[in-house]
Amino acid sequence: MTTTKTILVTGFLALLAACGGQPSNGVDLLGSSQSDLLLPGGTIEMRMRGVHPSGFSSVAVTTHSVHVWADGVPQPVTIQGTHMNLAHTGQAWLFATFTLPLAATTVHLEVQLDNPGSYAHGSSSGSVDLYERPIALDVEAAQLRSRGKIVLHDDLSRSLTPEGSGLLFLPDLVVSF
13-48: per-residue pLDDT in tens? Predict the structure, then answer.
């Protein structure tokens, strides 16, 4: 009995060390949460994070809508948060969740932001034209299942360009799972 307990505790400590040494509370820079592994058919988090703020103290965007199709079939989406400040680069903002069907193989995602957004850079501020087209991605369901999330990392130094009296937002994204 004591040997079995010792083996279980030793196995648990080895597993804990392999997973980074200690349990995580909250979200790290990649948007990882306590449950990095997802069972098939589980809930998927959708997050957005700004990178390379280039002097911006605020780049405020609001989620208007999120649409998800798994193998061409529309899926219900729950909006989790609508307001994001992408200049706060240490935060991967949770904006939506959906349940991935067990048999799904491909997923199409569309994220529409409300227009306009706003920015602050030094002593100047103004509006951000968030472009009328949604951010659209096609991904393999297995990639989403691997960690239970998709994080859209937007390079603000490349995404925001001057236009008239404000800025135009043309997303320059890197996607992680």
Answer: 333 334 444 333 334 444 444 444 444 458 999 999
Share of the chain residues as helix, strand and coil, in percent rounded to the nearest 5: 15, 45, 35
Give CA torsion, residues 159, 135, 108, 72, to 10 deg.
Answer: -160
**What is the C-alpha separation between 85 and 92, in angstroms, rounded?**
10
Q: What is the pTM of this model?
A: 0.76
Query: Which amino acid appears at position 23 of this protein?
Result: P
Sole residue written with tokens 């706060």: 88
Which tokens belong to 85?
A: 């400040």
**Rg, C-alpha atoms of the chain:** 19
User: In this structure, how many other beta carbons lie within 10 angstroms of the beta carbon of residue 122?
Assistant: 8
